[in-house]
Specification:
The strands form 7 sheets. Strands 3, 4, 5, 8, 13 and 14 form a 6-stranded antiparallel beta sheet that branches. A 5-stranded mixed beta sheet has the order 2-17-18-9-10, with no helix packed on it. Helices cover 15% and strands 33% of the residues. It is of the alpha+beta class and 436 residues long.
Length: 436
C-alpha cells in the first residue's frame, strides 16, 4: 500500500512540475524554434542536372556528333602539350564521381554582385544565403570500392544516372520560408501579381569532381575520392576554379568558380521571373543544372616536374585553354522554379534530328542566348518536347554547335516567339521552328 501511495505521489509531483515550468514558448522565443517546414519538406523538390538540355539530353553514344568520342583540345606549339591518348575511352565509359557539399539560394541581390566578392566572412555568408540543402551528397557512375561507401549507401549510382539523363538527381532539402512582399497595394506598386520571394542566386558547392581518365607521363594518376584510393582519376575542381592565365595574386581576390558553381539571374531574366517561390502550399521544383555531360574534353598541362598530365575536363567554350594548369570559366549554371500543378508542356516541330543543334527556350526579354544556359533546352529532334514551362512569353531559339565544335551551341540559327497562357493549366502547346 505504501508503495502504491509513493508511486501516485511521484506521478502527481511530475505533473505539477511540468505544468508549472516555463518553456521557450512562454518566454516569447517561438520564432527561434524550428517550424515544421524546416523539419519535413513536402513542398519543394530539389533536382540537380549535369546537362545543357533540361529535357531528353543526348545519349552518351550521341555525343560529339554521334561518335560518342570525347572532344580533344587543340595540341601543339602554343597550345595544349601533346597528350597521351592511348586507350582513351568513349565519353559514356568514363567513371565520374561527384561530391557535392550543399546547394544554396539567395534573395539578396546587391550583396551578391561581382560574383560574391563582397561576401568577406562567415557573418556575411550567413546573412546572404538560404541554406536549403546543407547535407552532402555523393554521386558516382560506378562504385569506387569493394565495401560500402558513401555513394552506394546513399543510392548515388542511380542519382548519377538521373543527374546525366535529364530526370535530375534528387537532393535532400528544406523548403525556404516564402515571405510575402506585402499586400495587394505593394504587389500593384511593384508590378507583381504574385506574393512570395524572388531569388537571384543559386549555388552548387562542389567538394570534388573526379573524371576517370588521367595520365601523368603516360602513367595512370592516383588520387583519392571520398577518402578512398582512385586509380586513373583526377579531381578537376582545382583545374576549373580559375580561368586560364589567372595570376596567383589575382586568385586571392576571386571566389573559386567551383566553390560555388554560381548562377546569377540577369535583369532580363527576372522580368518574368522563374526564380520566385510563391507564398502558399502548392508544391514546386527547384531545378539547378550545369553543362557537364555534353562538354567533356581532353586537356593537358605541364607539371612542375616537367611531365605532361592528360585528363578529362570541360571544353574551353568561353576561355581558351593553352596548357595552363587552370582551365576554368567554362561551366555555366542556371536555376529555375517550376510549379507542376500549373505549368504546361511544349512540343516543337521542325527538328531535323541534327546532333549539333538544340532548341533553347528563353524568356521574351532575354537577348543573350550563347553565354548563358537556356531556361530550358532539348536536342533538335523530331517531336521535341519540353516538359515544364510556367505561364509567360518566350522565345524558342534554334542553336547550333557550328563554329567550334566542342559540345556547346555557339551559333543562333533562327528564333520565334510563343506564349504559354495562365489558363487553362497543364496544357500542351506546339511551336513550329525549323532547326537546322
Amino acid at each position: 500500500m505504501k508503495s502504491l501511495y509513493l508511486q501516485l505521489s511521484l506521478i502527481f509531483l511530475n505533473v505539477f512540475v511540468i505544468i508549472g515550468c516555463k518553456t521557450k514558448l512562454d518566454l516569447g522565443d517561438e520564432s527561434k524554434l524550428p517550424v515544421i517546414s524546416t523539419l519535413f519538406n513536402n513542398r519543394m523538390l530539389l533536382l540537380l542536372k549535369g546537362t545543357y538540355a533540361t529535357d531528353n539530353p543526348l545519349d552518351w553514344s550521341e555525343l560529339n556528333n554521334g561518335t560518342g568520342e570525347l572532344y580533344v583540345d587543340d595540341q601543339g606549339e602554343g597550345l595544349d602539350p601533346t597528350m597521351t591518348l592511348v586507350n582513351r575511352p568513349k565519353a559514356g565509359s568514363i567513371p565520374i564521381f561527384l561530391d557535392i557539399g550543399e546547394v544554396r539560394i539567395s534573395s539578396k541581390y546587391l550583396k551578391g554582385l561581382n560574383e560574391l566578392t563582397q561576401i568577406r566572412d562567415t557573418v556575411d555568408s550567413n546573412k546572404f544565403w538560404d541554406y536549403i540543402a546543407p547535407n552532402r551528397q555523393v554521386f558516382c557512375t560506378v562504385t569506387y570500392s569493394f565495401d560500402n561507401n558513401t555513394c552506394t549507401e546513399s543510392n548515388g549510382i542511380l542519382k548519377a544516372s538521373d543527374f546525366f539523363n535529364g530526370i535530375g538527381a534528387q537532393f535532400p532539402s528544406n523548403d525556404p520560408s516564402s515571405e510575402t512582399i506585402g499586400g495587394i497595394e505593394t504587389a500593384l506598386a511593384t508590378g507583381r501579381y504574385w506574393f512570395g520571394r524572388e531569388y537571384y542566386y543559386a549555388a552548387i558547392y562542389f567538394r570534388s569532381l573526379v573524371t576517370g581518365y588521367a595520365l601523368d607521363a603516360g602513367i595512370p594518376v592516383s588520387g583519392r575520392f571520398d577518402n578512398r584510393p582512385i586509380i586513373n582519376g583526377l579531381n578537376i575542381v582545382p583545374r576549373n576554379n580559375y580561368v586560364a592565365g589567372t595570376t596567383s595574386s589575382a586568385k586571392s581576390t576571386i571566389v573559386p568558380k567551383m566553390f560555388p558553381a554560381l548562377f546569377t539571374q540577369l535583369n532580363t531574366q527576372s522580368v518574368q521571373s522563374d526564380m520566385v517561390i510563391r507564398d502558399g502550399f502548392d508544391p514546386y521544383i527547384l531545378e539547378v543544372r550545369i553543362n557537364l555531360k555534353e562538354n567533356l574534353m581532353l586537356h593537358s598541362y605541364l607539371t612542375s616536374r616537367s611531365t605532361i598530365v592528360t585528363y578529362v575536363g570541360v571544353s574551353d567554350i568561353f576561355f581558351d585553354h593553352k596548357g595552363e594548369g587552370d582551365a576554368g570559366g567554362n561551366i555555366l549554371t542556371r536555376a529555375r522554379v517550376i510549379y507542376p500543378e500549373t505549368a504546361s508542356s511544349l512540343t516543337i516541330s521542325g527538328g531535323g534530328n541534327s546532333l549539333l543543334h538544340y532548341y533553347g527556350i528563353f524568356r521574351f526579354h532575354e537577348t543573350e542566348f550563347l553565354n548563358v544556359l537556356p531556361l530550358a533546352a532539348t536536342p533538335a529532334k523530331q517531336n521535341a518536347k519540353i516538359k515544364y514551362l510556367n505561364p509567360g512569353t518566350y522565345k524558342a531559339v534554334c542553336l547550333g554547335d557550328l563554329t567550334k565544335q566542342d559540345g556547346y551551341p555557339d551559333t543562333v540559327v533562327r528564333e520565334t516567339t510563343f506564349n504559354i497562357p495562365e489558363y487553362p493549366f497543364r496544357q500542351t502547346y506546339n511551336v513550329d521552328l525549323t532547326c537546322p
